[in-house]
């Protein structure tokens, strides 16, 4: 079952240099934007998967019902697939994958509100994925080694729990001295 969990009609796509590991900054964006399209987050439940799709209308016009063609797809495998810019809440670095080839693009929103909603949708999916992983781990049987069971007839002994060894008297003293 698939469902669209977030849409936004206008996002700007920018070319950026390959990531350096220090995070993206808006100063790295190569102006002007190379593309303007719409954004959809599509969640699939079995298996649990999220796809971030940047699309362009097939027909001229910005009708919300217009057919759309895929421009880029970013599988949201882990939180590193999409990173927020270090100096702005409106820009994100996307790891776009196409036929085992990887490219990095920057995506920007015109306003902060849709960028925040986008982050919340990603965080909700992360939470759902963690719950799914925990559920799967709980279902897995735990393998334990058990000692072979021996009956009284085999050993002729009855195991008894022995009391703990007596502690020396100094162990009962406390830091406050003897109160009598």
Automatic annotation (TrEMBL):
* Domain of life from the UniProt record: Eukaryota
One GO CC term on file: clathrin vesicle coat
* Listed GO biological process terms: endocytosis
Under Pfam families, the record lists:
DUF1681
Known InterPro entries for this protein? Answer: NECAP_PHear, PH-like_dom_sf
Start and end residues of each stretch annotated as Disordered: 155-180
All residue ranges annotated as the NECAP PHear domain in the record? 3-136
Name-wise, this protein is NECAP PHear domain-containing protein
User: Can you name the source organism?
Assistant: Protomyces lactucae-debilis
């Amino acid at each position: 079952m698939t469902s669209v969990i977030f849409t936004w009609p206008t996002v700007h796509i920018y070319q950026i240099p390959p990531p350096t590991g220090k995070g993206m900054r808006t100063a790295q964006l190569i102006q002007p934007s190379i593309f303007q399209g719409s954004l959809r987050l599509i969640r699939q439940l079995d298996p649990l998967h999220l796809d971030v799709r940047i699309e362009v209308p097939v027909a001229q016009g910005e009708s919300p019902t217009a057919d759309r063609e895929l421009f880029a797809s970013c599988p949201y495998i882990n939180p590193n697939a999409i990173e927020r810019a270090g100096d702005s809440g409106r820009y994100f670095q996307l790891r776009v994958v196409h036929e085992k080839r990887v490219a990095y693009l920057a995506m920007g929103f015109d306003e902060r509100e849709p960028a925040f909603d986008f982050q919340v949708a990603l965080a909700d999916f992360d939470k759902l994925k963690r719950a799914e992983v925990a559920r799967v781990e709980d279902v897995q049987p735990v393998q334990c080694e058990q000692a072979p069971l021996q009956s009284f007839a085999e050993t002729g002994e009855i195991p008894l729990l022995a009391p703990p060894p007596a502690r020396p008297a100094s162990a009962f003293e406390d830091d406050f001295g003897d109160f009598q």
